[in-house]
Structures are given as structure tokens and as C-alpha cells.
Amino acid sequence: MTTPDDTPAARPAEPYRPAVPAVATPAAEPDRATPPPPGTAPVEPATDAAPAPPVEPVEPVEPAETRMSTGPTGEGPTLRPARDGAGPADVTAPSRELRTALAGVRGEVGKAVVGQDSAVTSLLIALLCSGHVLLEGVPGVAKTLLVRALGASLDLATKRVQFTPDLMPGDVTGSLVYDARTAEFSFREGPVFTNLLLADEINRTPPKTQASLLEAMEERQVSVDGVPRPLPSPFVVIATQNPVEHEGTYPLPEAQLDRFLLKVVLPVPDRDHEIEVLARHAAGFDPRDLAAAGVHAVAGEDVLARARAEVRRVQVAPEVLGYAVDVCRATRQSPSLSLGVSPRGATALLATSRAWAWLSGRSYVTPDDVKALAHPTLRHRVQLRPEAELEGVTAESVLSSVLASVPVPR
User: What are the AAA+ ATPase domain coordinates in residue numbering (predicted)?
Assistant: First the structure.
């Protein structure tokens, strides 16, 4: 993935800052709240295993002011501390406080997981956009632990479902139960009635059970016996899957993949991070006991709601809107793809770019924001032609070619 340089994300001379908002949604003025200071991240586990997105180690986040910068190619953004004087003049104090609170979430997750800053930032973007995330990685790279640590650092209801071949749709959504004492049926809620749902190994359950999440993910409701039942807000599904084992698995259909806002790939950690993992375990770290590791909730629903309100106020110039559309339309014309990015994918790219710009401390989107989020937002929305796969072409290489070929607005 092509990523922008790690330079101050917003300064008055920024060429793409629109004078008049082209896309802006009014929101209530956020309340001020003093966020807890972000912790310095210790290390990670080996049950759900060692971490590692392709991101360089980052410095500890200072509590005063935070900003974001993209990680290396292909794996999305990484949270970094702001430099003195680098904050944009138009970002208000409440925004800095909210960004600091979310930086604290990264610090708490870092107490359990090593080297996953890029993945944690992607999860924060999904929370700001009320979108869902598909985590993909080989066994033992801390996919499940990462989600558990995120849930422990947020004051949100979190539930986990282990998807298996015999799991039924009612086991996820809930079902009607007959009460012999009253001679009536009553609805018993399933684990989907929560704020943060971990769908572990989602590709190990049959399509009918996978499809039970479609309505919940898109409409934020579950219909049982013809009665729609709204889900709590916020509602985010974080699903994990293993890319190497195909026996006994059921690949997600394109219609369901398109419901995921981001697809985050977690590779095997580098040597230094793996040494850090072993050092933490040698010191007695237990990945099953996150409380003992010091992970605690530092943000809640109110922080996310106020942050989402500010994200909706992020401005997008017409030229940047056109650039995002051109990137998505170019995938539909690629000879290597049988399926390009849909209009839903274009709106997802806009949403993630606005969240990334806000996390970077800016109130406007630049083409670099679109480039930074193109890979994680679009990689699962394209389908390669069989002949292209035989030639070794990948979705990542196609997206890189598209980003290199589409003219950037000046």
C-alpha cells in the first residue's frame, strides 16, 4: 500500500484544505472530557500468539496531543505522537482530547500485543465509522488476543462466538424459546446483541450461519419470527479468518465481504517483536488474564459518539471526492479483475479517509488520506480473473497499479 510520508499531517500551507466544505454533516458540539493518559505499551502473548502488522515500531504516545501517520505499504495507518507545534490551528481542544483518549486505547492494547499499532489504528477507524473489520492472518499472530485486548480497553459490551461447522443461525442471533409455565414463546437474545462482537474463525461455519450476520451488519437489527429487533449502538463485528487452511472452511461470498469496512492482514512479527513476545512470557505474562497485564477501559461509548460527530464534520473538497471515485472506477476497468469496487466501496473509502484525516489532527481530507486507506478498504472488494491469478497477480498489486495510474488532483 502506498502511504504518505511521515510528516506533520496538517499545517496551514496544506494544498488540499478546502475553503468551503463540500461534504460536511453538522453535529452537536462535543463535550469536553479529560482523557486518561495513554499507557506505554508493554508486550504480547503467544496463545492467540504473537503480533505483527507490517509497521515500524512507534514511539510512546504523549498524553498532551496525538497525531497519526501511515505505516509501511499495504497495512494502513499507525498512531504516532504529535510533534511540537505540528497541530493544525483549526483543530479544537476537544478534538485533541478525544484523539488522546483513543491513543490511550492503543496504549492499553499494547500492554498485551506487540507491534500491532497499524492493526489497532485500523480498528479505531472502523469504530469511528461504525464499520466492521475482517482480520486475516496465519494461526498464532494474536488475532483473537488483539480483539480481546481492544474490548478490555473500551467500556463496551463485548462477546465472542467461536464459529464451527455445526453452529446454527439461532446460536448467533437468538431464538424463540417455549416457556411451559406460561405456554408462550419468549425471545432469548443471542450473542449478537452486544457492542463489540468477535466472530472467531468465521470461515469455519456454513454459509447459512454466515448469512445470519448479514442483516445485523448492514441494518443493525435482527429479525426473528418476522419481528425486527434493534441491536445496541455502537455495533461492530470483528471477524477473524485463517488464509492458509482451506479444508473444512467455507469462504465468505463477495456479498458478505463487501459488508466489511476494512480487511486487515496480520503477518508474522519481525525478529525484534518476537523477542519482545518471549521476554514478556518469560516475565510471567498470561494472555488469558488481561486484567493482570494491566489492561483496563480508558474510553467508552460517549467518547466514540463525540469522536464520530467530529468525524462527520471533516470536510472533503470536490477534487478529492472525484479522486476517490476515479480510483474506484479504475478498478472496474482493470483487465486483471473480474469484479471491481462497487459504489458501496467508494463510500467506504470516503468514510475511512475522513476518519484517518481526523485522527491525523485535520478537519479536511487530502488525496494522501485516500491513498493511505485504499488497500485495507478495497482489497477485499475486488476479484481477480483466473488467468491473472495464474500469472501471480494479486489484489494488492492491482490496487498499487491503480493508485499509480490515477492522476492526483493538484
Answer: 129-270
- Whole-number Å distance between alpha carbons of 308 and 320: 21
Q: Dump the DSSP string for 217-266.
A: HHHSEEEETTEEEEPPSS-EEEEEE-SS--TT--PPPHHHHTT-SEEEE-
CA-nearest of 410, 257, 242 to 348 is 257
At residue 180 the predicted structure's pLDDT band, cuts being 50, 70 and 90, is confident
Name the residue with higher pLDDT: 248 or 376: 376
Q: Which helix (H) or strand (E) holds 120?
A: helix 117-129
Per-residue pLDDT, 76:
53
Over residues 293-308, mean pLDDT: 91
Interval 43-90: pLDDT, tens: 344 444 433 333 333 333 333 334 444 443 345 555 443 333 333 444
Bond into 206 cis (ω within 30): no
Max mean pLDDT among 54-58, 69-73, 179-183, 302-306 falls in: 302-306
Q: What are phi and psi of 388, to 5 degrees?
A: -70, -40
* Residue 326 CB neighbours (<10 A): 17
Cα distances from 258 to residues 33, 75, 332, in angstroms, run: 36, 19, 15
Burial track 289-324 (b if 16+ CB lie within 10 A, e otherwise)? ebeebebeebbeeebbebbbbbbbbbbbbeebbebb
C-alpha cell at 331: 478498478
Return the pLDDT at 339.
93
Vertex 321 angle, CA 319 and 322, to 5°? 65
Q: Which amino acid is at 352?
A: T
pLDDT digits (tens, 9 = 90+) for 196-209: 999 999 999 999 99
Report residue 368 as a C-alpha cell. 494522501
pLDDT 10s digits, 19-46: 444 444 444 444 433 333 333 333 344 4
Render 93-109 in DSSP notation, one character per residue.
Answer: HHHHHHHHHHHHHHHHH
Q: From CA 8, how far away is CA 5, in angstroms rounded?
A: 9
Q: Is the dihedral of CA 141, 390, 380, 403 positive or negative?
A: positive
Based on DSSP, count helices (H) and strands (E) in the chain, helices before strands. 14, 15
